[in-house]
Amino acid sequence: MIPAAFEYYRPKDMAGVLSILEEHGDDARVMAGGHSLIPMMKLRMADVPHLIDLQDVGGMSDVSIGSDSIRIGALVTQHDIIDNDALAAAAPILREAALQIADPQVRYMGTVGGNVANGDPGNDMPGLMQCLGATFTVVGADGERDIPARDFYEAAYMTAREDDEVLTAVTIPMPHGGYAYEKQKRKIGDYATAAAAAQIVKGGTTCASASIAMTNLSDTPVFSEAAGAALVGTSVDDAAIKAAIAAMLGDIDPTEDNRGPVAFKKHVAGVILRRAIERAWSRA
């Protein structure tokens, strides 16, 4: 539980961060809240000779709510999400999901930016951001660029962010319709055995649009376009929900581990998705 020796840096601005990244290359990593990276360092699963703490870098701790989008700085914590009443009114699914992450001690330090940037398939925010159609802003030596959340994850702990880039913000289109984040876990503080994010817009008595993403059921979060499409144009009855579950099961690729065998995980995924769809529809 003791990490290997490392050099610690706490620059005051992004220019200082990028300078250290340029100097040390693959040997340097940035840290926001540290609740993903530090445990990996302690278990010697990550070797980080040069650790860059972002806590003193300004401009990444704000939440801005516009008329058509919400911008969340990378250093905004899960507790900040829960405690922000204006944000909860604009996008209540964010508070609903954040309350299911780990425990209060972790939520006081764990950040939105760290949760989405690390590429851990068990983290809750990546799938949620895919469901919401979010965009991640990264900055590097060549400037700033935006990457859709649905294109960001390539494999476990591998993302479209380059090693010399820092994720600085998450931008979410203003959510509409019904929402739900459902999660099954073995105990408080654990990663999900399966989790589902759902957003459904109603048109009259039928589903006009639906967005569904799953967590910890593959080596990346899974945005299931087919599952959402199975609900569109229906009254979200039992047959439509079964079709959405079948489509989702075709998109995920769980592996056996201490949370259960593959068949159990698929069963749980179906149960959790049904709950998410039914609750989102009831709120639409």
From TrEMBL:
Keyword Flavoprotein assigned: yes
Q: Which Gene3D superfamilies match?
A: 3.30.465.10, CO dehydrogenase flavoprotein, C-terminal domain (3.30.390.50), Uridine Diphospho-n-acetylenolpyruvylglucosamine Reductase, domain 2 (3.30.43.10)
Q: Which UniProt keywords apply?
A: FAD, Flavoprotein, Oxidoreductase
One GO MF term, please?
oxidoreductase activity
User: Has the keyword Flavoprotein been applied to this entry?
Assistant: yes
Q: Which InterPro entries match?
A: CO_DH_flav_C, CO_DH_flav_C_dom_sf, Diverse_Substr_Oxidored, FAD-bd_PCMH, FAD-bd_PCMH-like_sf, FAD-bd_PCMH_sub1, FAD-bd_PCMH_sub2, Mopterin_DH_FAD-bd
Domain FAD-binding PCMH-type, which positions? 1-177
**Pfam families from the UniProt entry:** CO_deh_flav_C, FAD_binding_5
Q: What is this protein called?
A: Carbon-monoxide dehydrogenase medium subunit
> What organism does the record attribute this protein to?
Roseobacter cerasinus
